[in-house]
Design brief:
364 residues, alpha+beta, eleven-stranded mixed β-sheet, three-stranded antiparallel β-sheet, 6 helices, 22% helix, elongated
Length: 364
């Protein structure tokens, strides 16, 4: 059992001391009083919280069979270092990641064979229409982004993803409060009650995706989710015909940290949704243990347009299965200035018209 001086206040975290006058434990920082049995139970609960364990079996992908990769070629960009894989007929003239020319390096080698692939469901015309729709109504967008030749540069790329499956046992502790207010003829009172809320249980995860390419912005790839894994099929090189595949540069083991973060956040969100009936709820401790965590290697279809304007790089991506489109847009400062001046002129005219009307009816 801990010494009395070692107890921490569940409300503010301060050290608690015994108050001989009250015959209770009292926090000198927030003046909260506690029965000794309450603190003992709280302390015992904290001492029995499980340690977190989030480990995986990261043996994803498989070895290429003899002769299977003979028709594949590797291309590398001398500007950004991006490496892509295509078949012998791939007309890879520019890098899908930065737009600069790329050169063929020769026979493909040196990576695992994907377990699955989700084939492209939307063709290039659908991708171009998606980009046009994304640009509609953007008055302050530089004209180059609406240029048809520019839109034609969109490319279909199979992006490498590590897919994590696991069952998670979790124990999460929250600090919650309820308040009660009342008044008498002299004062207003507010009583705040503090509670320790515990949630525990199990939850399963399938195909948690983490892209294996450092060239792909993580937030961009997460923004075009979800992909429907029910349409995935065992990988065959024939699916690369007419497209290119990004060669992963982060293996499954290097992607575990992001998988853990996604699993933990999803678990915490699911459990937090069950804590109701309180005015405030603050998570204080979260422990997640994974069981049977495994990884698979898959290629997911993405349409990409990467371009540079005024020294900035802009990437647009469309889910090649669902059509979901995302991307940051640059601002044409000249157009913005003209728009601001025009808006100011309109506002001035409106104000002048209102003032004239008020003067005519004798208000001013």
């Amino acid at each position: 059992m801990a010494n009395l001086q070692e107890y921490k206040c569940p409300c503010c975290g301060g050290a608690i001391a015994f108050d001989s006058t009250l015959q209770k434990m009292k926090c000198p920082f927030c003046d909260t009083e506690f029965e000794m049995e309450t603190l003992k139970g709280y302390d015992e609960e904290l001492n029995h919280e499980p340690e977190e364990n989030m480990s995986w079996d990261t043996a994803a992908g498989s070895e290429w069979q003899e002769g299977e990769a003979d028709g594949l070629r590797s291309y590398v960009c001398k500007s950004c270092g991006g490496e892509i894989v295509g078949d012998e007929t791939t007309a890879a003239s520019s890098c899908p990641f930065c737009g600069n020319p790329i050169v063929m390096m020769g026979q493909f080698s040196g990576s695992l064979r994907p377990d699955y692939v989700i084939p492209f469901k939307l063709d290039k015309n659908a991708a171009k229409e998606g980009l046009k729709k994304h640009l509609e109504g953007k008055r302050l967008l530089p004209k180059i982004f609406k240029n048809q030749n520019h839109i034609d540069e969109i490319k279909g790329v199979y992006v490498p993803f590590w897919l994590f499956d696991t069952d998670a046992d979790a124990s999460i502790r929250y600090k919650a409060t309820r308040t009660r207010a009342w008044s008498d003829s002299d004062y207003d009172y507010v009583e705040t009650s503090f509670y320790m809320v515990q949630r525990g249980g199990s939850i399963g995860f399938n195909q948690v995706p983490v892209d294996g390419s450092s060239k792909m912005a993580d937030d961009l790839m997460e923004s075009i989710e979800p992909f429907d894994f029910s349409e995935a099929v065992p990988f065959q090189t024939a699916f690369l015909a007419g497209y290119v595949a990004d060669k992963y540069d982060m293996d499954a083991e290097e992607s575990v940290a992001r998988a853990n973060a996604r699993v933990k956040k999803s678990t915490e969100d699911a459990f937090a949704a069950t804590v109701t009936g309180y005015e405030t709820v603050t998570p204080e401790n979260s422990s997640v243990q994974l069981h049977g965590g495994t990884a698979k290697y898959a290629l997911y279809p993405v349409w990409l347009l990467n371009t540079t304007w005024n020294g900035g790089q802009y990437t647009f991506a469309m889910n090649g299965q669902t059509g979901k489109f995302v991307g940051d847009l640059p601002l044409d400062n000249g157009a913005a200035k003209r728009w601001t001046v025009g808006l100011a002129a309109v506002c001035s005219a409106v104000v002048f018209g209102i003032a004239k009307l008020l003067w005519m009816i004798g208000i001013i």
